[in-house]
Amino acid sequence: MKGYRLFAARLFRYRWWVLGVIVSIVIVDLIGLLPPKIIGEAVDYLRMESAERWVLGVFAAAFVGVEICRACMRFTWRRIAFDFSRRVELDLRNEFFEKSVKLPPAHFDRTTVGDLMSRATSDIDQVRMFFGMGLLTLFDTLTIVVTTFPILLWLNPRLTLYTTIPLPFLAIVCWRIFIETHRRSRAVQDQFGDLTARVIENLNGIRVVKAFAREDTEIERLDELSREQVRLSMRLARVQAVFFPVFTIVMETGTLLVLWIGGSGVVRGSLTVGDFIQYNLYLAWLTGPMVGLGWTLSLYQRGIASMERLNELLLSKDPEDGAAAGADAVDGDVEFRNLGFRFSPELPEVLHDVSFTVPAGSKVAIVGRTGAGKTALVQLLPRLYEPPRGAVFIAGRDVRDIPAARLRRLIAFVPQDAFLFSDTLAENIGFAFESPDAARVEAASKAACLHEAVEDFPEGYGQIVGERGVTLSGGQKQRACIARAIAADASILVLDDAFSSVDAETEERVVKSIREAGKGRTVFVISHRLSSVMDADRIVVLDQGRVVATGTHEELIRRGGVYAELWKKQQLQEALK
Amino acid sequence: MGLTHTAFMEEDVQKGFDPRLARRFFTIVWAYKGLLFLGVGLLMVFRLSDIAAPWITKTAVDAFMNRPDRPVEERLNGVHWLALAFLAIVLLKIAANYAETITTLLIGQRVMHDLRMRVFNHMQSLSLSFFSRNPVGRLMTRVTSDVSALNEMLTSGLVAIAGDIITLAAAVAVMLHYDWRLTLVAFAVVPVMLWGTRIFRRFARQIHRITRAKVARLNAYLSENLGGMKVVQLFRREAENRRRFDEYGRDLYRTHLRATFYSAVFFPFVDIMRATAVALVVWYGGGRVVQDRITLGTLIAFIAYIELFFRPLRELAEKYNILQSAMAAAEKIFSVLDEKAEIVDPPAPEPLPDVRGEVEFDAVTFGYEPGHDVLHEIAFRAKPGEMIALVGPTGSGKTSIVNLLCRFYDVRRGRVLVDGHDVRAVAQRELRKRVAIVLQDVFLFTGTVAENIAMGDRSMPRASIEAAARAVHAESFIRSLPGGYDARVSERGSTFSAGQRQLIAFARAFASDPRIIILDEATSNIDTETEMLIQDGMKRLLAGRTSVVIAHRLSTIQRADRILVLHHGRLLESGTHAELLRNGGMYARLHELQFEAEAPAPAPGV
Q1: What is the mean pLDDT of chain A?
Q2: Same domain, B225 and B151
Q3: Range of the domain at B227
Q4: Which residue of B131, B205, B243, B299 is most buried, as measured by CB atoms within 10 A?
Q5: Does A78 sit within 8 Å of B264, measured CB to CB?
Q6: Rounded CA gap, B250 and A30, in Å?
Q7: Per-residue pLDDT tens for B163-190?
Q8: Residue B241 forms contact with A (CB below 8 Å)
Q9: Domain match, B109 and B197 both
Q10: Contact of B56 with B71, CB cutoff 8 Å
Q11: Number of H helices, E strands in chain A
Q12: Can you tell me the mean pLDDT for A37-48?
């Protein structure tokens, strides 16, 4: 898509704002034509023999009056223009968020949060800059050129010809300088990111650094990066430093020509001193916008690049959702039918021909080594990844036919990584609700054996957790995630290795309370600690993506094999911890 | 419920001018006094040539243009000569400006590099206790953005202010020289102007701080949502979180508008002040021209000088903010530099030649915080080549023993001895060269696999690296990587499995060829094949070396020459597996439990 079209739609959406910006700029610039005229006339008046002080006072008052008008209009103009650009920013950001929450979860495995964040911050900033200062300067330049140029011509055609020739070049040169500056400063920033990452790595690994007496190597490595930062910064400095000289050369060449030609004109009598002064002031006024024009061009270019990056997300198609909107509650047996699954077409299958049924209200445990496909299997249930059609059913309905929102209301999921938001505990536990009620939060927290720990916090459930609050231990975090799932009160509960940082005793208590609290719920549990899966109605043993055995604990122990071995080994280990 | 605002404000501290900090900063800058003098000289040339331009126009008007009494030829000539002079000044100005910009930025970059390395260098010498007190994010800021803030102060702040002072002083001097009365009249607005600037500065600073906090809040919320999108979607919070995000966004939008209001008021205010000054000059100066007290050229020059005078005042508030942030940054940086290392080498360290590998804890008592001991009177001795297994529940003091042996911390009472030398009497580096540590959570550095094994020792030959990897069974998996030993390790080695990281850590320890090895056995679940490799790799790594192992696996414990059973920081039992079983203490009870589990099977290795 052509660049300007990207912006055209947006510009049209804000047409009244744009109009406001244009009108206010034109007014400001028209008023701006007056002061040089007043000064020029005043100077010429001074040269008359009959000059009187009170007339000068009138000139001065007129000058101030005009400037006050202009200042007031400038205020309006800034307000409108900045308000407009901030509105564009706000809308873009909201569109960005809106789109992000619709992305399939798999998308977040492919992109980093950092990449998305840089789009949401610096790319949106670039677009805002174009809509704000960019458009403003563009209209400003146009108005000033359209109005000032005729005045200059009228004052002295020949002089105008000479003095305005360099101006378009100034715009072009400035544009190139801005683009180059931007390119080089990106390089500086990227490298600064590397440097920061290096420091963070060092600080995180400081124990190892010290244990291996590696301090000198670390200092050497940072020194290299820091020197490179100096080199890149100076590379940027060289182009930045060119800007002012270029600007000055063009501007002062104009002044020089005015002095030379205009000065001669005054001497010869073809120009008055007042005209000379006026000319100087108008010319100076024309130079600024030329720089601005160059800047606008660079903003436009960068804005386009950013808008394209943003559109990759904003114009992406929403993932298809289960269309069948049957109002009936889908609740019942969960069935996997000859399920084969791969994360993406080019990757090998991680699940092969998995078939088993979980009757509603029963507890099924999935065990197996790391990488056996346990997590992949349960993630298909709430469609975190899309299973193939005709493979995963709830109450006889293909999950692909159930709208995601409805499906996920049925399933409370405790993911492997205990992710909490930097918010209060109450908000986190009641995450499934817009405003959680205290009783529900507390009940869920008790069921997850978290309540006692919460009572020790100075602000109880109002305690903010995460980066900006208290730091929870790994076990507390996991229990908070379990409480969050319990509070959601769904008919299917999935615990994906949810106890890895919880000690055995607490795990047992939580498992027990879930069993009591969740009567009638279908429970999927993945755990490395077999003691908490032994009471399951059925245990499914996965190995390399295949179901190798199913049965109750007793059956599997009796039969021997993978499960029985795992069981023995763990009994020993547990005893020694 | 929102997030607390105060939490975001920690980083945005401002501080008034502190001469002590400034002096200290200046001593660092002084290292570049040559460049500094050059920069200041160029700055003077640049700024003074700025002042010269209006003077030329004035002369042109007074001496030639406005002198109908002189012959036209002479007047034309004069104008042309002045135009040439003007050209020369412009060229001088451009050259001086370019050179000055480059010089200033160069000084800034060099000082920044110096300071960054100085802070980083100092951090490397600090003790672990310092790092446990200060979060990584905060320390990182000291080396990165705080240093940048000081650079900003030097290049955009101090130099610009010095330049502005030169311009202002020169402009005022020239104006006073021509007509002091007119100068006073022209500057009648300055008090109003300064008063306005003061008020604006206060608002600007406040709004700036609020804006930054709100931007931080918005971005934190966004990044958190992006990071936890699975959870958002699983719990169907899309609509609610979108609503909150919009709320934060709108709040920020309103703050931006308030900020715009102040700048939209301030800049026109400065314009009005400038216009008033010009008007005063036209009115009063015009009168004086009429009275022939001053020339027309002088009046024109005055108008130009007023422009020069007001230009820097517009940016004064901004520069003041830069200075204040820089002061706060300087304070934080210097406080790190003033931090004293708690673990220091003795003035005359005892040499540690060929270490045999004898380790002894002599009645060691230790605590991280005063008044709270985590180890009580621990005493044991390991003969060279012996393997000691530490056993005990979490919090029993196993890690503290490891920390003391590496001298990450110092004992409160008692002694830790290596080959009979108190660890406090030898240089830390010498000690740590002979002690290798393998932690449970293996830390890999970005770089290649080979670099990670050599631990940055660039002189280590590739053959030794490969030999080390081979010795601990790491070679086959390393060879299978794309690039083999030169395969890149991404941030924190996230592409390797736990087992593979263990093997690299073994190779790393093996390559450093220590006499003493400290090993915190991994508890994580590792698949059977890798587990076997790890067990055998560990045996090879420990062979012939003294080792202290925080053991989690029965097979490891049983292999130990001595088992130390710790509980609440006290040494409960010690002895071989068989001895401890005979004693019937805690270890024996633990072991009994296993038998229950294992039923009829015989205890392995007994």
Answers
A1: 84
A2: no
A3: 180-293
A4: B299
A5: yes
A6: 35
A7: 888 888 888 898 899 889 999 998 899 8
A8: yes
A9: no
A10: no
A11: 23, 10
A12: 84
